[in-house]
């Protein structure tokens, strides 16, 4: 899919229409995933275990993995268990977080066609060294299926605005839940902790970045070069959420999935500068005031936002699809 460069719209993304901000043309877009009939014919007789094998295969094409994820959802996705989510252990380490200030112009130039400006990237500076204790992080973002169980048990909790007319999207049960507040994400973690006797919470910024990019500070979970077939950003040409885990070759060094693309993920921290850094009064801070940091990019955002170091948050617009994943104390 050919995107329109935003190089001449630097810093103006929040003043553009959704399609303009995504680099999309204004007319009909014929996406590669519009016809999955061949893929469904290939997998229609597969059982749940075989569908999971397709989803997790590094050798199957995206369309087949996508179709397998959709079918698995309708059969019942056994990868997802609300009261016992799959967690990945992240070992303790003394690691670097963030970006050297002298690298900011290089990053802006490298992603010039996305319309970013230096002040958005300056929030990643300076590069600092921090201690991270051993913790666990959920292999996938929290899904609609899991969130439905939460709402059913906690009547009165926020219904995601992405659930049109307040209806649970049964056809997207194994897609990440999105368009909720950080407070609701924290309520979910408290609820699950109470239900299970475990210690769930949102990951800190440091934990999230380490789990995504590893000790080598990778630019993206899979490496230092953006590859559109490894995550669900606008460049992938899907323009919708996808079943969790269908980009296995986009895994982080620890085996955590969907840390780039699909949905943006709230962390535990409100925005503040890193140690010895300066506060960046960008358009988000001026509009929202104090805001919760989000990480990871989404299906509505371009590749620059999928960088492991990128710090952002929810601008008051439906273009921002905000979800979360859990951390767990050991």
TrEMBL record:
The keyword Metal-binding does not apply. Keywords: Kinase, Serine/threonine-protein kinase, Transferase. One of its GO terms (molecular function) is protein serine/threonine kinase activity. Pfam families: FGE-sulfatase. InterPro entries: CTDL_fold, Sulfatase_Mod_Factor_Kinase, SUMF_dom, SUMF_sf. Transmembrane segments: none annotated. The keyword Lipid metabolism does not apply. This is Serine/threonine protein kinase. It comes from Guptibacillus hwajinpoensis. The lineage of its organism: Bacteria, Bacillati, Bacillota, Bacilli, Bacillales.
